[in-house]
């Protein structure tokens, strides 16, 4: 029996769990109403994350908004979004409560912004391919909404700094940095 | 598709204005109430505000500069004239949901002659300058035209002005009044268009095919037409859908009849996004909310810029493939995006002149 099916049974046999969760996390009436208005399969799928990991009202509202957006984008129900293998992989990692919620929301964001996530992943790969020296990092603007790339070089001595600047200059000789700017400014096409 | 409110509110003293007389004749079954400025119609929510029509005098200036003329955006020197406020349509993404949240009543202004006099003074004061003036900022230019007959005052007025071009911007197919007049090359009728997948959330508007059929008919009556792909809404399949949209446009009209295309990406404030989330279940904003919008430096939400550039380029290239001579411009975008998409950053005056010269005048 899958996770959601198990949860359906749980909801039928232990219906009070939902009320107890709403009370324990002090969910706003509007949030409770929103959950009740969902179709049963979608509600069960959401609660299978919200209850075990004790999401608070803000977290739950954010998750519901994001799930709605993904579902609209894909033309499917929220339950189908919750069945994404990327989310299942988080559950089996058996992280703590806060880490699980953080990972869950991060994964939802990747599903919510598929093209942006792909662009960020490409930039990450290109950064790795550049082999920047230790203590050096390349930063792109949040959500790629900006024109500038930042480069930070940290060093504990003048000698180390000179060596890292030289190694960085060498790393920037390849075409990766052009590709990074192309993604940032033009989407990478 | 004509909007027919069941309720008319007319300001005392304006009953004999041309707008009020036309509206009453067009709506013989509507309940009519009179009000004074001291005792206006009661405030109602945004949805209810669209169901009744208020006819009243406009206080203050009619003519304003388009909001794109601020904050470092490339500007096309467009002027807006407000002969109405709010719109009978209910596009899911519409900024009026927030902008008019405390002034929701769908309103047509009755003192049109005063607005025209203000335009006349502006045009006469700068005879060597070309002006593009539109009525579609706070309202749809033609949705109320069957009720108010406003176009019958505007089109002849501009037909006699050598340095003014009127733009009537609409999502309707209400063009019957236009067909009876000769614009003498001084009126552009433009349509805000999108793929049917997006139009499905422009509640109450004319379907794409009706808009394009109306465009074809007005070209036959001597009008140039414009098209605004604004807002461009990013969604799965956007390339295919916008490609198909342009195929349909050019199946309907000849490139030689098109004055301009504008491109503008969906944008909204965080507050407006909140309003979109609270829309009624029967008229949701799914497409608009699901687009890959992120917050920019100004706090507004737009599709992240790399994807925005891709979308603009794709659509601009498709337009140029169909109509190499037609002016294409970006709306509400800065110099950086202009350079990357159009390979140029025109000055405000230059762009305005180029657009004013792009039609049949």
Task: Give structural attributes.
heterodimer, A: 68% helix, B: 361 residues, alpha/beta, 8-stranded mixed sheet, 15 helices, globular
Give the radius of gyration of chain A. 22 Å
Rg of chain B:
20 Å
Order of helices and strands of chain A: HHHHHHHHHEEHH
Strand content of chain A: under 5%
Q: Which percent band covers the strand fraction of chain B?
A: 15-25%
Class from helix and strand fractions of chain B: alpha/beta
Descriptive notes:
By secondary structure, chain A is mainly α. Helix content of chain A is 68%, strand content 4%. In chain A, strands 1-2 form a two-stranded antiparallel sheet. In chain B, 35% of the residues lie in helices and 21% in strands. Chain B contains 15 helices and 18 strands. Chain B has helices spanning 18-26, 46-49, 96-99, 112-125, 145-148, 151-159, 176-179, 196-199, 208-220, 238-252, 270-277, 286-290, 305-322, 335-342, 348-356; strands at 7-11, 31-35, 52-56, 63-65, 78-81, 84-85, 90-91, 107-109, 131-134, 164-170, 187-192, 202-203, 224-232, 258-265, 267-268, 293-295, 301-303, 327-330. Chain B has an eight-stranded mixed β-sheet, with helices on both faces. A five-stranded mixed β-sheet of chain B has the order 2-1-3-8-6, covered by helices on one side. Chain B starts with 6 loop residues before the first strand and ends in a 5-residue tail after the last helix. The mean pLDDT of chain B is 94.
